[in-house]
Each structure stands twice: as structure tokens, then as C-alpha cells.
Amino acid sequence: MTLAVTFDTTEFQPINRGYNSVFRQSRLTLGLVVPLESYSRGPVPAMTGHVERIQLAEALGFSAVWLRDVRFNVPSFGDAGQMYDPFVYLGLLAGLTERIALGVASIILPLRHPAHIAKAAATADVLSGGRLILGVASGDRPEEYPALNLPFAGRGARFRESFDYIRRMGEVAPEFENTYGSPGGGMDMLPKPASGKLPLLITGGSQQDSAWIAQNGDGWMLYPRHTMVQAQTIRDWRARVEASGRPAQPVMQPLYVDLAEDPGTPPQPIHLGFRLGTNHLRAYLKSREEIGVNHVAFNLRFNQADIETTLKRLANDILPDFSV
């Protein structure tokens, strides 16, 4: 039984510099989840040399770095992410990098007003020269919602309303009614995204039905699954997108990696990934490419080797097989 997904020969519809460079039809590109450090013994990273490591990732040829929207250090979640507010951090990185795409995986829409998201995201996109890729999600940490006096149970509906609000802010002087407000009266939100539209990638289910996701997202972020399951999931996604009358949309996934020194080290499961050598990592990534994954973002939180050394090994031994 073949696992490969049938592709169109055309590229994905262009949106901005970042999106266009990261997502290529029939190809896999590689990025990194920030922070670029190991912090397996606790939920809070040190953030030592964090900017220098992102600049190194850009120099080595990785296609994107991905920030996260972790508002509170929730003990049950066990990971504070990069700690810094993603939009403030995007502003810093926009000025200190030149080519690498700046992604967020993902902004929790129900926990922020969409006017603030739209303004901050468009600003980061313009300041970076069109390199922003905005992942969006409904949120999976119930503890955060009472802190903002918001109901966890209603996040699905608020996600849809927020998504629509952000989309409409790309228009000139939009006038509409929404749960979050009723923009109108001839006023406008500035700046507009660098290319007129923000790329919005939906994470997982986000409390939505599959048809809505296929009709609205500029791509889909999935968690790692067994190859056969992931292949079928992507085939079903492509079919739903096609049935909705839209052109093909990209798929991406994260992967936790603990890179062993011996290239031949076989895969040993860790949280949402593997400890393995470069030979087996290359084979795994080729299998993802064959089933239609367009981007994999490495998370090095559990990596035991020196991070700079690991980045250089990935760049030398893995990146050449996935260049575009």
C-alpha cells in the first residue's frame, strides 16, 4: 500500500515572503522551535544567548523559527516556552534577522482581543519585510481562562469570531459586526500586512469542524503521528480543501529531537519525537515529505548535546537534503 500523497504541480498560492519560502509544494523545509536550548529538568528555559542562536540558525539556512504563546507558567502544562511575549519578541527578531521566516505556533485567539492581534501581527509582518507566519489556536490550558475571566467552554466560538475579525482588518476601512466589536465609521487599522494579507495557519482542531478548517486556514499544523495515520490524515485534509473549491494548502508539524552523536543510532521515542542519529532522522523526514508534510519544526528542549553543535550538525548533515 502506498502512503504518498498526490500533489498538484503548481506551488501554493503566495502570501508573503515568509510563507512563500517555508511552504513549497511537494517539498519539505526545516525550522526550529524557540527557545533553542535544552531545559529538560524544568519548565523554564534560561534564554542564554537566545538571539545569537536564532541568528546562527538563519546563517545555517534553517527556513523558520517558531515562537509560542504561553501566557502563564502552568504547572500541569510543564513548559513556559520562550517566556517573552511573542509579539514583543517578534519585533526584536524582525530587527536582528534578515531572511529567516518568523512564525508563531500558535497565538491563542480567545485569550486576546483580535484588534490587538491584528495590529501587532501586521506590525511585525511589516517590520520584518513580510516574514511573519501566524499560527492560531483555541488554547489547551484550562487554567489560563479564569485568570482572564473567560470561559474555557466557549473558546471555539470565540476562536471563529476572532479569526474573522483579524481577516477583515486586512481590508481598507472594514465595516462589520462581530462578537468582539463593530468596526466602522470610516476608520481604518494600520499598518496593513506587507503583502495585504496575514498567513493564518490553524493548529489541530481548534474546536472547529474539519470542513471549517479546510475552508478557512492558510495551512494546517498537526502533531506528529505514526506515518500511516499521518498520511491518511493529510489525504483527507487535501480532499476537504479541494472539495471546498480552494487551492492546495500546506501542512506542517513539530518534532522533538535529541540528536545522538552516532549517525546510526536508531529512533528511541521521547515526548512527541525521538532520540536518534542523523541517518534515521533523514529517513524519517523523507517519509514525512513523501506523505505531504511541507515543514517540520525541530524542538530541541530534550536535546542532550551542545545546542550550537547540534544546529551545525543538522545544517551539515540534514539540511542539504531538504533545500528548496
Short account of what is shown:
Helices cover 34% and strands 15% of the residues.
Name a few traits of the molecule.
324 residues; alpha/beta; TIM Barrel; eight-stranded parallel barrel; 10 strands; 34% helix; globular
Layout of helices and strands:
Blueprint: H1 17-22, E1 29-33, H2 50-60, E2 64-67, H3 86-96, E3 101-108, H4 114-127, E4 132-137, H5 144-147, H6 155-168, E5 200-203, H7 210-216, E6 220-221, H8 227-243, E7 251-259, E8 268-270, E9 273-276, H9 278-291, E10 295-299, H10 307-317
Parallel strand pairs: 1-2, 1-10, 2-3, 3-4, 4-5, 5-6, 6-7, 7-9, 7-10
Antiparallel strand pairs: 8-9
Describe the structure.
- The chain has 10 helices and 10 strands.
- With about 325 residues, it is α/β, with parallel strands linked by helices.
- It has a single domain (about 15-320), classed as Alpha-Beta Barrel (TIM Barrel).
- It has an 8-stranded parallel beta barrel, surrounded by 4 helices.
- Strand 5, helix 7 and strand 6 form a beta-alpha-beta unit.
- The longest helix has 17 residues, at about 225-245.
- It is globular.
- The two termini are about 30 Å apart.
- The model is unreliable at about 5-10 (pLDDT under 50).
